[in-house]
Amino acid sequence: MASVGHDRTSALGIHVREAVAAMRPEWVALLQTLVRTPSQTGAEGAVQAVVAARMRDLGLETDVWEPRVEDLAPYAGSFTEVESFAGRPNVVGVRRGVGDGRSLILNGHIDTVEIGDPTHWRHDVLGGAVVDGRLFGRGSCDMKAGVVTNLFALVALERAGYAPHGDVIVESVISEEDGGAGALAAILRGYTADAAVITEPTRRAIVAAHGGSLMFRLHVAGRSAHACVRDEGVSAVEAFARLHAGLLAFEARRNREIDHPLYRPIANKIPINIGTVRAGSWPSSVPEWLVAEGRAGLVPGETLPMFQERFQAEIGRIAGADSWLRDHPPVVEWLTGQFAPSEVSVESPLVRALAAAHAAINGAPPAIEAATYGADMRHFVNTGEIPCVMYGAGDVRLAHAPDESIAIDEVERAIEAIALLIANWCGVDEVA
What we know:
The structure is a single chain. By secondary structure, the chain is α+β, with helices and mostly antiparallel strands. It folds into 2 domains: 11-210 and 341-430, Aminopeptidase; 212-334, Alpha-Beta Plaits. Helix content is 36%, strand content 20%. It has 12 helices and 18 strands. It has helices at 11-22, 24-36, 45-57, 69-72, 140-159, 181-188, 236-257, 304-320, 323-327, 349-362, 377-383, 408-426; strands at residues 61-65, 90-95, 104-109, 130-131, 134-136, 162-164, 168-173, 196-198, 206-210, 212-221, 272-279, 289-298, 331-334, 342-343, 368-371, 388-390, 405-407, 428-430. The strands form 5 sheets. A 6-stranded mixed β-sheet has the order 1-2-7-3-8-16, with helices on both faces. A 4-stranded antiparallel β-sheet has the order 11-12-10-13, covered by helices on one side. A 3-stranded antiparallel β-sheet has the order 4-5-17. The protein is elongated, with a radius of gyration of 24 Å.
């Protein structure tokens, strides 16, 4: 059995780099095909057909299935509920190990957010154009490059002449953007392993902890009056402005309280964001109602029920200090698509193995960080009880944005590192 350490000149590392470089036209072409195939959350079927066909061509045991709503029902609330996943299959490919090594899941989501206003893009939204070493298009960074990374890391290892001892499970899952029903469905179908890596765009830092988030709806009451005698009414908009100021103060206080070591470099560890506001029914009337929807963050160590209770109490405290809101308390409604936080120890065997693989490729250890966003990582850690981290090419700041793109050279380094992780984690044998 061979393993990989920090030595960049190891034979295995050299062979992997040569294989990845030789395959570059192949994996760039696949990434372009995936980007050119729309796959907004809810419409992933066409792109999953492309992924499944490639997995079969590579000889993987390929499982294609549509998750069943009834199987996910016990976990309602942790993803956005839908009536059916018809036409929205998960795709999983398995390479059985040649020995008794540890198993590994390589996970990526294939769904994307909406394309947005195409006039804000300099490049074709779904064109997959390569310009100055970057590949452009919705989903290129988040995270079709990660799906390509996972698949070609396994292929590169094999074309370099090595076979993994443990099973390698490559997953292309749906519905991550609205809560992760796809990843959860794969776990419930029995796809478990000794560890998992999600190749989200982390700038090839190892993300060992990620935040959670709760989606909420606030109902704020006012008292209507004709606009010409505005002062005889109570504006729900103005009442909400005071409530919102209190929530921002709550956010600042929580940021001062959090002492998680991986979160110390992050200025806003638990953002509270109001995403939509609707109020009133007539421009010439004082608005007597307002509905605001938002998202509140939490960190590892906090549970969803714990934070819901604290958030509700804070709304009550803010309202209690306001003459109008005290007698007309805001109503909090919790929405589906909740993300619990999760983490693994930075000293865990998985982190050490991935750090060694990264160092072997880059000549220096990776950053080990936390993320403020919710992620499918929680399903592996909290539900599957599988150690899981995130590591991949690309920058999340480019995700969901106009001119989303990813550097092809960075994808190449990520493929190399994940290939060496397979060797580090599963063990490998040279094959003729």
